[in-house]
Amino acid sequence: MTPRELKTQYRNERLAARDAIGPDERIEKALAMLVHGGDAIDLQPGEIVSGFLPIRSEVDIRPLMARLRERGARLCLPVILDKSTIVFRELVAGAALVSSGFGTAGPGPEATVLDPQIMLVPLSAFDSTGHRIGYGAGYYDRAIERLHQKGLSPRLIGIAFDCQEVPSVPAEPHDVRLDAILTESGLNFVSEVIG
Questions:
Q1: What is the pTM of this model?
Q2: How many CB atoms lie within 10 A of CB 59?
Q3: Is there a smaller number of Cβ atoms within 10 Å at the N or the C end of the chain?
Q4: What is the tens place of the pLDDT at every residue in 42-94?
Q5: Domain of residue 102, CATH code
Q6: According to the 3-state scheme, what is the secondary structure of the chain?
Q7: Tell me, what's the pLDDT at 192?
């Protein structure tokens, strides 16, 4: 099986496992993530944090984002501009959200575009070394690469349920490792793996 085929298999299996979590249980797991990450994520007042609004069976991190805002974060959400590009627009209290592609919503074109310093990254599967499998479109990989080209190194925190973990993600050259993973079991920092 090629790395791409294995990624597709893992993506399908882990998304099916995530889909099997009932709505009430999903809420409980999201609240556990708030408890584990709300005060533990290292954050300086004024730092820019990108979050996301849930699609399909993703965890709803709005309570976590609200806690980070209380701690002084400036929040932003991803918005799809075209088939290959997302930008992060500032999320201010009371601002209207518009359809932003991929089944989600985000701030409209009048919102300020920001470069996140901390990114809460959705995913379909992950492993303990910080490799992730996204949804297959590569939006986050390209967005992170653009930030790196600007000389920026955002801290990447993968957001997932425990059931989305796999033994080992076949990493490809364009893949960017996460710095930490937040699940309902806790905030786990990824250590450098040599070898």
A1: 0.94
A2: 25
A3: C
A4: 999 999 999 999 999 999 999 999 999 999 999 999 998 888 889 999 999 88
A5: 3.40.50.10420
A6: CCHHHHHHHHHHHHHHHHHCCCHHHHHHHHHHHHHHHCCCCCCCCCCEEECCCCCCCCCCCHHHHHHHHHCCCEEEEEEECCCCCEEEEECCCCCCEEEEECCEEEECCCCCEECCCEEEEECCEECCCCCEECCCCCHHHHHHHHHHHCCCCCEEEEECCHHHECCCCCCCCCCCCCCEEEECCEEEECCCCCC
A7: 53
Residue 123's closest CA among 173, 187, 55, 74?
A: 55
Q: Which two tokens stand for residue 136?
A: 């297959």
Q: 55: domain range? A: 3-189
Burial code of 148-166, b = ≥16 C-beta within 10 A, e = fewer?
A: eeeeeebbbbbbbbebbbb
Q: Compute the chain's Rg from CA coordinates.
A: 16
Q: Is residue 62 part of a domain?
A: yes
**Contact by Cβ (8 Å): 183, 162:** yes
Flag whether 194 is in a domain.
no
Beta partners for residue 186, in sequence order? 183
The tally of domains found in the chain comes to 1
